[in-house]
Amino acid sequence: MEFHLYQPRAGHPDWRCLDAEAAEIARRVLPGLAAPRGGVREWLRRVHSYATAAHHFVANRRLLQAGREDLWPLYFIWTLLRTCNFRCPYCDDHRGQRYPDLPKAGTLSTADGVQLLRILRTGTPSVYFSGGEPTLRKDLPQLTRVARDLDYFPIIVNTNACVIDRLLERGEWRTWLADTDIVIVSLDALHLPTLQRMWAYAHPERVLRNLLLLHRLAGPMRFKLMVNTVIQPDAVEHARDVLDFANDLGIWFCPVPLNTGPTVHRALAADRAFLDLGTLILQRKAEGYPISGSPRMLRRLLRSEPLACCNTLKPHVDYDGHLFWPCKASVNVAPARIDVLQFEDVESLYGYAVKQIDPAGFHGPGERQCGGNCNWAQNYATDAYVYGLQHPLSLVGEIAEFLQSRGHGPPP
Prior knowledge:
The chain has 412 residues and is of the alpha/beta class. It has a single domain (15-314, 367-402), classed as TIM Barrel (Alpha-Beta Barrel). Helix content is 41%, strand content 11%. The protein contains 14 helices and 11 strands. Helix 1 (15-29) packs across helix 7 and helix 10 packs antiparallel against helix 11 (295-302). The two termini are 17 Å apart.
């Protein structure tokens, strides 16, 4: 493998060996994978999703002008399960509790998961499967197939990727990549001893090999591959390694400054290395490298600027089918937990929810506000959308980028 930006260092893997392994796995599994759907039916899926998004844009402009913040969602985030085979020190349920330590009872069955997807499709064009680790659910291929048939687009899965190679060998997983539009791999470093400690996982090289496997499959399977990198104090150089590596391979890069609970980590704002990395990320974006988010959004995210947070645009649904309203990470006011399966559609769900807690003006430090200062990329995405409702032309590029089903290489 040839690198230009990325410089392998001591403790980094043998990339030639890992790439050879990835190539062999790709050669073995690709013939057995279902081909991604094309033609009129696939075109209609995307048109249906775009139509939902366009209708909601008009409706949300009217709601915002009326002073309301119960906006129709861009997508919903579904925590499929709490089980995870990693123990990342920074990862929690947005309420300070670590997923592996939480009870698992109440996880939705496949049938209830299908019904949840049907209900939420009445009010959102896209679904984001999260966890825990979503690939530990055996029915994930069934759920992504249902999502595709319901005309969700894009269908997004965020994974640690550690078992992807084994799953793709199984017949019941042959449709999964064909039905998934965006695969996001969580990756915060390339230094193997650091990853072993961070993940409490003995073989991080398997994740890196599987990332190379997904990189090889992204073209023929027509999905967009991203890495999600949490930038941590005293570990900024590791995030820089991932940035350079992703830029060399043409993998989309999504930076996430570390939060502690719902608050950005204070040490980052004073970290010169972090500020320099932020400048570099913006520079790379301007140069045409595949980095998620508009320059405005990235600048605000990396500088922890105040944001217009609107969580109804990206509602969190928990493993048991309950919606956190209006914000899962709320500190000062406990969020309402509402059973989505008790409603026929999103309109009735949101109509009930707003009577429990009015989201208008909910973001902020006040006693009756959320009390959070979240610095997640998803929150800045809502900020960008709210800004776009007031300045529609600003959204054109962001929407086009978000809806791209595939990545591209680094600029020439």
